[in-house]
Design brief:
The protein is of the alpha/beta class. Helices cover 35% and strands 15% of the residues.
Length: 416
Amino acid sequence: MRGKSKLAIQGGSKTIEDNFPHFVWPVIDKKIEQAVVSQLYKTISIYDRSGIFEEFEDSFAKYHDRKYALLCSSGTLAIHSMFVAADLKTGDEVICPAYTFFATVTPLLFTGAKPVLCDCDENGNIDPNEIKKKITSKTKAVVITHMWGIPCQMDKILDICKKNNLLLLEDCSHAHGARYKGKVVGSFGDLAAWSLQGPKNITGGEGGILVMDNKDFYSRSLLLGHYNKRCFQEIDENSIYHKYATTGMGLKYRAHPLAIAIAYELFKNIDQTRKIKQRFAKSIINNLRKNDSIKLLPAMTDENIQPSWYALMFLYKSKQHSAAEIVGALKAEGLNSIDLPKSTSPLNLLALFQDPTELFPIYKNKESNFSYREGDFPKAEKFYKMAIKMPVGSCLSEDKLTKQYIKGIKKVLEIF
């Protein structure tokens, strides 16, 4: 369907404004502007642990009740640092979610460890019952993503990891400030990583951060991407790693101070922002929960779970039309911020996870080789085909816009 929506075609109804406004994030206010200008005149490069880096890392670590936090230039590199810190290598198997953004798992390929993909539950998160089926004598770690800001089933996952002596690694890129039974995500695993990119609840445009309690993990993550001054500053002289301080592992993963100045200002209001998002999310849920054409995720009404509301996902379950068709109609009505999460797909549908050997020859080895195909993870594939992503307002001024989106969705669903 192109041009005008079915609503306009069938009934001549007045459509929502042609130039319907987008949800805006981040909102650049005076505080953010001043923080950037102030940092601009201090320095635009930081080589050690000082200044805005030290302030943000200390605050972030404290918020998550962790000993160490380390900024990186992207969430992908924070995840890579997490894998290297955990000393994952060829011969290791790592259980990973089949349904996630690919950067949760692609950095693992640089370690030579084998990603063992695992199907999802009704919320789109890794299914603990499926994790149990994948454990072998070679399994070293479990990676989880709190998809779309909804915490995973942490009690079950923690129990599995403890009983099998497995490392737990959290990808919290969607889940800044989310909580499971009152405990903030990122405080459960042995290591945890976040993206600070574009639309994330805490953003600097680009950036990432990881946290941990283990000093050895911290030293290895420093060596990976923060060589010389920071390594000399923070790695003990009697450590086996100290002799590598000058070069580290040869990579540079340092963040940009201006990006972190923005992210830090947003982080200071993380709980306030989440409460605003929660208010809007509840309004959306209450207005859409009785519609037979869509399915809301069970966690959205679970009292033990407080999502970050990075996005509000709903599943379109009509057999007559696809999720793509409904999104096309919604966009034609001016609901431009609603979208299909195309790049966040079951990994088995991507060429890299069907045949990694052209780009990563190490996976030609029998002990590491893997090859996934369409149909391998039916729950994840079904979720992906039905999933529609809706933004959740982050400031009170978006109340009217949220109501317009709810009204527009209802209208389109009545036709479809």
